[in-house]
Specification:
Blueprint: H1 2-22, H2 29-49, H3 55-78, H4 84-103
Helix pairs in contact: 1-2, 1-3, 3-4
InterPro entries: EmrE-like, Small_drug/metabolite_transptr, Small_multidrug_res
Subcellular location: Cell membrane
Transmembrane segments: 32-50, 57-78, 84-103
Length: 104
């Protein structure tokens, strides 16, 4: 169940990152409220995952999924470019997460 909590936390992390862009500096009420709720949801579900998982592994995977998800969805939503260096970085994040999991 801890891994499910971690995955949910990562989804909240992506929503938080994308939502922060939509708040326009927290000047728009609705996106601001949704962004703050996403941040709280992510921290809460991460804390549930940390009941079982090591913090170093869980936090790294949480931020890794959040980073990759944010880049991919921002390309779809905000038309940001996915460049070769970004793809290589994705691979490094994924490889690092796998190695952390295998080491733990």
């Amino acid at each position: 169940m801890a891994w499910m909590y971690l995955l949910i936390a990562a989804v909240f992390e992506v929503a938080f990152a994308l939502g922060t862009n939509a708040t326009e500096g927290f000047t728009r009420l609705r996106p601001s409220v949704l962004t703050l709720l996403a941040a709280a949801g992510g921290i809460y579900t991460l804390s549930l995952a940390l009941r079982t998982l090591d913090v170093g592994v869980a936090y790294t995977i949480w931020t890794g999924i959040g980073s990759i998800g944010t880049v991919v969805l921002s390309a779809l939503i905000y038309k940001e470019r996915i460049t070769l260096p970004k793809v290589v970085s994705f691979g490094a994040i994924i490889a690092g997460a796998i190695l952390l999991r295998l080491a733990g």
